[in-house]
Design a protein that fits this description.
Layout: H1 2-6, E1 24-27, H2 37-41, E2 45-49, E3 65-69, H3 73-80, H4 82-85, H5 88-92, E4 95-99, H6 102-108
Parallel strand pairs: 1-2, 2-3, 3-4
Length: 118
Amino acid sequence: MFAEHLQPFGKTSGVKAGKMKKTLVIVGNGPLTRDLSSEIDSADYVLRFNEPRESIGMSGSKTDLLMLATSSKQMQQWLKYPTFLNSAIFRNAQELLFAFHPAIIRQFHHRPNFCPDG
């Protein structure tokens, strides 16, 4: 059962249940004290949040999932500047997830009214 949950995150063929070891690295936007590029790039799955300005050159470039905070003005800035769009982290992202804060969803993404009487 445990192996079933890991299948989306990497290859599981030929691996016996209970003997599989997978690595997940979560990279935030804070500073790093040393270069972790080789450890991050050799992980089975790398999840990144936003743009890691503080760790560029020290956090590798592998990106399986890039989560971007779309409810901030920062997203507008990223899309204006080609440096973000051309960055290795953005280009290597296998998947993008645009995250919204629940308060933003409630305020700006109203549910449609399907009732004919309004």
